[in-house]
Give the backbone structure.
Amino acid sequence: MFRLTTLTIVTCITIGSGVAASAAPVDPAVAMNLLGVQGEVSFSASEIANLDRPFYRSDQNGDGYLSESEYISSSPHFRGNPQGARGFLGASDNNGDGRVSRDEYVQNRIITDEAKSIFEMIDQDTNWGSISAFRWQMTRSAFVDSSYLGNSQLASQLFDEFDSDNDGQLQLREYLVRYGRWARQALPQDMLDGL
């Protein structure tokens, strides 16, 4: 885990005769620290070595890249869910060339797999194994009051940024989108490269 120096999260705005608190955007490094993100350190060497196996199974033409059609047709997780496959590939395609290299794939797996593990640790009262990951969600109170996070004020701000549709429920998809952006912004490359 990486450590941070102090950072002001809440700014105060004077309105008339009173003072109202307004949440500033959460710094990605602060978010990653609160979530306890470790990057590839949270994986064993054999887990890292196996992260690329689905990549090679999906690379049907053997060109060293995954196209959308290859991934949709070969991934058991996304068969019948092209929107989910497009989301995963879009998140993985770091250089925007419309295809995913082995390194991009492994980096996204490190980010996504750790993110899902943290999601489970935040709400330990839910039996996540009994629910399809496509249906994972947690309430605001489960997130904010989590003993895993330990800072309800910052957790509340994080929830607000994760909950992109503002429905008070944190869908795994919403969480992964923001988490992935923050991880790529805040974590050193050597924590995500799988080497």
Q: What stands out?
A: The first helix runs from residue 28 to 35. The mean pLDDT is 82.
